[in-house]
Design goal:
Blueprint: E1 2-7, H1 11-22, E2 28-31, H2 60-68, E3 74-77, E4 80-85, E5 90-95, E6 99-110, E7 114-116, H3 119-122, E8 132-134, H4 135-145, E9 152-156, H5 160-171, E10 175-181, H6 190-197, E11 204-206, E12 208-214, E13 221-226, E14 239-242, E15 245-248, E16 252-254, H7 257-261, E17 266-267, E18 272-273, E19 286-288, H8 299-317, E20 327-331, E21 335-339, E22 342-343, E23 351-358, E24 362-371, E25 374-384, E26 390-395, E27 404-411
Parallel strand pairs: 1-2, 1-6, 2-3, 6-19, 8-15, 9-10, 9-15, 10-11, 20-27
Antiparallel strand pairs: 4-5, 5-6, 7-16, 12-13, 13-14, 17-18, 20-22, 21-23, 23-26, 24-25, 24-27
């Protein structure tokens, strides 16, 4: 019997496993489907990682190595695909080396990360020529495999991977003609807009989209149109750009097939599992952390959240169950979702941390947390945007006997 099994060897899984070991779990196993640990960080060769955690700029592989080099007494199974997770905490997996395996655990941490939306998910008209890639796939080809994916590119979507690939393609000699964003605001971090687009004079077309991809065998160009408030193309605003490559940066989806297969309830707002304050899902003894719960913008936050999950999993494996009354956390005006969705005050210590994203760009507003009409806490913000995850810390003493807390964005009066 294993104390804690961690599924996923990316930044979330590594942090969770180390934390589980450091908090008393005697047997911890990481299961990773790739041939090496590190996850998406291995192809993120740009710097900017670790500013919050290590107070220095690291590349993705450097950040991963800080954790991968600290796995003493943790068993690692790479090149191993998990087929199923059950609610009684049995993990069924298969690998070339070990064949079919069934592993039982006292606690499980789900840390499978997320995947990119593809062209099929957004239904762009046109044939299916070569030259259409997700931004992450292009990043892997370029940074790990050593293949240049194209010479003249247009990027659809302004997520962080797309912005970073605009710069990367330019540095490798390609011409990036435009970054096209459906929404009236960018989906990426402000620093990436500045460093990856503005510094290289790459135009960003907000409230625009690609309406057609041209080309039979290889991409030959795209048609771009402005969109209205309903996000539908406006007739007469179309223009064409010749290119041989289209990169898609149109959103990330938590990788939750195993979660759904285990019957663990999923929050439709995040596409991740509902979780408590200690990252336990609604299935007792199964925890989740990182991008499989909700998509983060900074890996530093992934690590901190995953350490909390790993510590809680170790406590559960040692027989310490988190109990007590439950407060539901809901999103109000201007807020897309909240994580965690449930708080058990008795397990929080003196404060509880909440993470969320807003639905629009806001300036000079306040975040409010209310118990019905009663104001529990408020936080002023000069600027908030959907591309940047927000966090607040609420003193448990202010929650009183609340059964529900609502997080909203309100104008400062």
């Amino acid at each position: 019997m294993t104390d804690v099994i961690v599924i996923g060897g990316g930044p979330a899984g590594l942090a969770a496993a180390i934390s589980a070991r450091d908090n008393g779990a005697s047997k911890v196993v990481i299961i990773e489907r790739d041939t090496c640990l590190g996850g998406i960080l291995n192809q993120c060769i740009h710097n900017g990682f670790g500013l919050h955690r290590f107070k220095e700029e690291l590349s993705g592989p450097e950040y991963a190595s800080r954790f991968a080099g600290n796995l003493e007494n943790i068993e690692v199974l790479t090149d191993t695909m998990v087929l199923e997770v059950t609610t009684d905490r049995v993990v069924r997996a298969v690998s070339r080396q070990h064949g079919y395996m069934e592993l039982s655990a006292k606690a499980i941490v789900l840390a499978m990360g997320c995947r990119e939306r593809t062209r099929g998910a957004i239904s762009i008209p046109g044939d299916r020529p070569a030259g259409v890639y997700t931004a992450g796939a292009a990043q892997r080809y370029l940074n790990i495999e050593g293949y240049m994916v194209g010479k003249n590119a247009v990027i659809l979507g302004s997520g962080d991977i797309g912005l970073i690939m605009a710069r990367r393609m330019t540095l490798e000699g390609a011409k990036v003609h435009a970054c096209v964003e459906l929404m009236p605001y960018s989906g990426g971090l402000t620093r990436n807009i500045v460093q990856c687009l503005e510094d290289f004079d790459i135009p960003l077309y907000l409230s625009h989209t690609i309406t057609r991809i041209h080309g039979k065998n290889r991409v030959e160009g795209v048609t771009i149109a402005k969109v209205g408030p309903d996000r539908k193309p406006i007739a007469g605003t179309e223009f064409d750009i010749e290119c041989d490559t289209v990169l898609l940066s149109v959103g990330l989806i938590p990788e939750n097939e195993l979660t759904r297969g285990a019957g663990i309830p999923i929050d439709r707002r995040t596409n991740g599992a509902f979780v408590y304050e200690n990252m336990e899902t609604l299935s007792e003894g199964i925890f989740a952390c990182g991008n499989v719960v909700h998509v983060h913008d900074l890996v530093d936050y992934v690590s901190a959240e995953s350490e909390r999950a790993g510590a809680a999993a170790a406590k559960y494996a040692l027989g310490e169950k988190a109990l007590g009354r439950v407060i539901a956390v809901e999103n109000g005006e201007g807020v897309s979702y909240t994580v965690p969705q449930y708080i058990r005050p008795e397990n929080c210590g003196k404060t509880a941390s909440l993470f969320f994203r807003v639905r629009n760009v806001y300036r000079n507003v306040r975040i409010t947390v209310r118990n019905g009409e009663k104001l529990v806490a408020s936080f002023n913000r000069e600027h908030m945007a959907p591309g940047e995850m927000e966090s607040i810390v609420i003193p448990v003493s202010l929650m009183g006997d609340a059964e529900k807390l609502t997080v909203s964005i309100e104008e400062v009066k």
